[in-house]
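__Record contents__

***
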Amino acid sequence: MRHFSFAWVCAGLALASFVGIAASPTADGPQFEAVQPDLFGVSGGQPNCWADFNNDGNMDLFVGMKGNAPNKLYLNNGDGTFQEVAAQVGVGDTTDTRAAGWGNFDGDGQMDLYVGFSKRSGVPNKLYHNDGDGKHFTEVSHQMGVDVSGFETRQVVWVDYDNDGKVDLFVAFRDGPNMLFHNEGDHFRNVAKEMGVDDPRRTVGAVWFDYNQDGRLDVFCANQDGDKNGLWRNDGTKFTDVAAELGMEGIAPGRIGSNGPSVIDFDNDGSFDLFVAGYGRNFLYKNDGHGKFIEVAEQMGVMGGERATPSAWGDYDNDGRPDLYVSSYIDKPVNEKDYLYHNEGKRFVDVTPELFRKHGATHGLQWLDFNKDGAVDLAIANNNPDGRNALFRNLLPPEQARRSLQVLVLDSQGHYTRAGSEVRLYVAGTRRVVGGRIMDAGSGYTSQSQMPVHFGLGDVKRVDVEVTYFSLQGRKTLLQRNVEPEKLRDRILTIKVPFPGALAKTGRN
C-alpha cells in the first residue's frame, strides 16, 4: 500500500476548497413531525433497521427491544402509515435484543433477519428465514450454525467478504472474539480465527468498506472500555489490523472508547470518509484518496460531547451535502444531548431542532425516505427508562424534497446481496462529484439495513450514476449516464450488477 499523508495546513486548504452543490438549509431550520407516536413511541429500542421484508416496494422497520419487551416489526402500508406485525410473522422475541441485521443469506430474494441478544439473557442468537412474501419467518440458526450464545452481541453485518457471490455474516461482541461466518451454501462456518479477524477487544460497532480501493471489503471495528479501535485490511486470505499504522486507533489518555462508526463521502471529493462516535470525543477521518486518512473532527466542528453512541448521515435538506446526526447515551438524564450537524461545506453547524432535543436517540439511528416524497426521514431508538422510540417525517417543501435521487444496487437476480457497493453521482457529462454513498454495511449502530442510498441534488437536474461493485477480478464499475430523477418513478434508480457473469441492468422504478 502506498504511503501518503497531508500536513494539517494542506488538509485545511483541501477542506476549505470544498464547495457544496446548493444553498444552506431552509430559513426556519429543519422541520420534522412525529409519525404515529402512539405506535412507534414505546420505550426501550436498541437496534433498528429497514428492509422491504414482504417485497411490496415499501420499506419496513424492525426495532429490537430492551429487557422483556417484545421486538417490533413495523409494516409499511405504502400510504404513510404503519402497523406492527412482529408476533404475527414470528419475530416478536421478548429477549433483551442488542443487535439486528437484514440480509438475504440464501439468495432467494426474501429478506432474512439475524437477531443478537444480550449475554445475560442466556438465549442464543437467532436467524430468521423469510418463508416468502413476508408472511412468516422460520428460526434456522442452529441448522445454519450461527446460534451463538454466551456473548454480548453488538454488531451484525451481512457482507460478501470474499467476493464469491454468497453473503457471509460478521458478528461482533463486546465480551468475546468477533466471529466471521463464511457462507458454505447449506450452512455457515466460523472462519474468523483462520482469517485473523477474531479480535478479542470489546467491539460495539463495525462497518465494512473498501478503504484502500483494492477490490476487497475491509472492516473498521469501534471498541470500548479502553480498547483501541481496529481497521482490518482484507488481504484476501487474511485480515491485517492497520489502525495503528494509519493513526486510526482513536483512543487517547483518559478516553474510554468508541461506538457507532459510519461511512460517507462528506466533502464530495469522490473518496469515502469515516466518522466514529465515541465516549470522550468523536473522530472524523478524511480519506486522502490514497488509502490514508487525516483526522479533522475538531476542525470540522463535529468532535462532540461526552458520550456519543450512534451516528448516521443523511442530506435532510437536499442541498447536495450530507448532514450528520449523532446521539449520546447518559445513564441518568433522560434527554441526552443530540446533535444534528448541518454540512456547510467548510464546517458543520449544530441545527438540532427542539423536537429532537426533547426526543433524542440513544442507540439505533436510520435515515430513510419511507414515504417516497424525496426527503429523508429519521427513525430513532431510545433505551432509556423514560425514553421513547420515534419515526420523524421530514417536512421539506415539495419542490425542495424533489431535488433528490435514490439508488438501489442489487445483484443480477434482483436481490439484496451487494452490501458495501459504492455509488457516486456526477453532474451529467462531467466528473464533478455530486455525492458518494455505500450500500449499508454496518452503519447505524448495532444494526444493518437493506435499503436504497439517498442523495440530495441541490440544483443539479441530470446526473451520471457510477456504481462500483466487487468481484473475484477486483473492483468493477458501471456507469448510467444522463439520469433525470424527475422522470423516475419515486426518483429511484435500480442498478443490477453482473455477478457472476450476467450483464448489467438498470431499472427505473
